[in-house]
Amino acid sequence: xxxxxxxxxxRLPRYYRYLDELRTxxxxxxxxKELSEMxxxxxxxxxxxxxxxxxxxxxxxxxxxxYLYDEIGKLLGxxxxxxxxxxxxxxxxxxxxxxxNFKNRGFEITALFDQNPDLIGKKTxxxxxxxxxxxxxxxxxxxxxKIVLGYPKNMNxxxxxxxxxxxxxxxxxxxxxxxxxxxxxxRLTTVEAERTLIESNVRRENRKKHxxxxxxxxxxxxxxxxxxxxxxxx
Length: 234
What we know:
Shape: elongated
Largest sheet: 3 strands, parallel
Order of helices and strands: HEHHEHEHHEEHEHEHH
Mean pLDDT: 79
Number of strands: 7
Structural class: alpha/beta
Helix content: 40-55%
Distance between the termini: 14 Å
């Protein structure tokens, strides 16, 4: 396979999300023209992108939704199971834990950690919120490899008080666990989430219920996209 451009790789998660929606709707096949109308890109662009990986489609038939979803999942490394823990069990952390599609995409959230006594002991859909004092022991017992921490920059790219506290928290985690802690810029996730809900015709009064879950998807997906692009560039 020839080296694939970063632009093509960056579009794969978007194909994957739209194909997941089609699967949910029980749609078995789709043409490049129909997919282009959903994604607001040209049909020619879709065919060119997918031809980088062998095409996947049949002339006069289009694309088998389930097959294309599975194959793109393999390209993104989502056919491999990953165990995850979440540090910070506020609204966003719990939204990630309760987002059922993560399990479908190969991510199993085994625990959440927080220092808020009002949260410790509560349960999300599949995991319990534990005291952050036990994070070190948990990391050692379950062979956690790395930690991704949301980094709350201001929209103008400046770093305020929350960033300073996040960096202090990062240093504490590194000292306690001995693991690499990755700061992930979370500025645009809420904006993207809002735009996605608007494009999906979700009523304004219902958006608040879903925005944290959608933002959580973008935070993790953004990190996974970067890891995949680095792998492809090697």
